[in-house]
Structure formats: C-alpha cells, structure tokens
Amino acid sequence: DVKVTQSSRYLVKRTGEKVFLECVQDMDHENMFWYRQDPGLGLRLIYFSYDVKMKEKGDIPEGYSVSREKKERFSLILESASTNQTSMYLCASSPVVGLGEKLFFGSGTQLSVL
Amino acid sequence: AQSVTQLGSHVSVSEGALVLLRCNYSSSVPPYLFWYVQYPNQGLQLLLKYTTGATLVKGINGFEAEFKKSETSFHLTKPSAHMSDAAEYFCAVSDQNGNKLVFGAGTILRVKS
Q1: Chain B residues in contact with A96 (beta carbon < 8 A)
Q2: B53 in reach of chain A (CB within 8 A)
Q3: Do A102 and B34 touch (CB under 8 A)?
Q4: How many Cα atoms occupy the beta-carbon half-sphere of A91 within 13 Å?
C-alpha cells in the first residue's frame, strides 16, 4: 500500500516555539503539499514542492516555511508558533505527470499552540 | 482563480435514503473536479474525479457525480445511504496541470438509523 506518513498525530507547543512537522512518502512522488484544515474553511494550501529543493507558496504561506532536502521528505516549519496556527495539518503527495492525478494524504497532525 | 462552494455544511439523511451533496465551482479554464472523503481521524481519500469525457462519473462505495458545465456544478449522489457513509466530504477543483487543488469548505454527512 502507498503511504504518506506524518510524524506526529498530536502536538502541543507554546507560543513563540519553533515547530517542525515532518512528512514522508514512499511512492517516489515528485509533488508534495502541506494543507491546513479548519472547520468551515476546508483545506487551504500552505506550500507545495514540485521537486527536491524547490518550493512554491500556496494560498496562506505567511508564518510558515518548508524544506525539501530529499525527494521523500517534506517538512513544514513554524518559525515562531502563534495561537492562530492551532489547526489540523495535512501532508499530501502526487505523481508529477498526468492531468487530474489524485493526492495521497497522510492522517494529519493536530497542532495546538498554547 | 478557481473556487469551490459546497452548499450545506451539514447534511443529515436516514439510512437507505438518497444522498445529495452539492458542489458548485468557478474556473476560467476547463476544470478537473474531485470529491474526497474524510473519515474520523483519517486523511482524505479520493471518491471520484472528472477530467474529460463522460460527464457522469462513478466512484467508490456506490457514489457518483455528474459534471454539468452549464450549471458549473458537480454534485455527489448515492441512491441509498449506509451508516458507514457518515464522514466529511470535500469537493475540489484543479487547474489544467492538475497539481494544485482548491478545496471547498466541506460537508459533514450524518446518517440516521
């Protein structure tokens, strides 16, 4: 079975802390994505990456950065966590070619910033 | 820019009844359209997708959706609801590359026994 693994299911951090959310996929996919999910807002794209060391801003990149040093790993970084970043974070991956390719999602990380 | 509107944040149906979840999209180019489902404490899974060709698309678990360009809609239906269908459903639209999805706000489906 294909797999997208997020390192933590639940995470509690304090305001101002630097937070790393890790995501690993085992499908050799080129594309990887970070979304945040909030009730009533659906999923909003934070950042995505088409290849190693490449990144593109999504719709809500403010307060976040990403790192993709290896093809299989895509990290989301909160440089200084704030309470409004409390959310469910979902990582996803997809193949590079093919129109309308589906995304494969991880199970999510519920981050609480206190 | 593309956008998706899902009508109804919560839908409740009785077991065995028709399921209808509404989705309207906005896109300046021919869209690719998706329905994803999220069961409690899980990530999203693809139910079905429309790219080109037949406008009636069949997906997993008995769900189907019809692309209606004139109405800019892609509503999801299932003839007979099952308790296991209780979940949150997301409609999404992509650009021509199909690599970036814009999601709707989601609809939580409740199935009553």
Answers
A1: 99
A2: no
A3: yes
A4: 28
Chain A residues whose beta carbon lies within 8 Å of the beta carbon of residue B51: 99-100
Distances (CA, A) of B95 to A82, B51, B60: 32, 11, 24
Q: Which of A92, A99, A108 shows the shortest C-beta gap to B51?
A: A99
**Is the separation of the CB atoms in A2 and A103 below 8 Å?**
no
Distance from C-alpha of B16 to C-alpha of B39, rounded to nearest angstrom: 19
The secondary structure of residue B54, as a DSSP letter, is -
Residue count (chain A): 114
At B39-98, the pLDDT tens digits run: 988 889 999 999 888 889 999 999 999 999 999 999 999 999 999 999 999 999 987 665
Banded model confidence at residue B30, pLDDT cuts 50, 70, 90: confident
Q: CA-CA distance, B24 to A97, in Å (whole number)?
A: 27
Beta carbon pairs, A and B, within 8 Å: 62
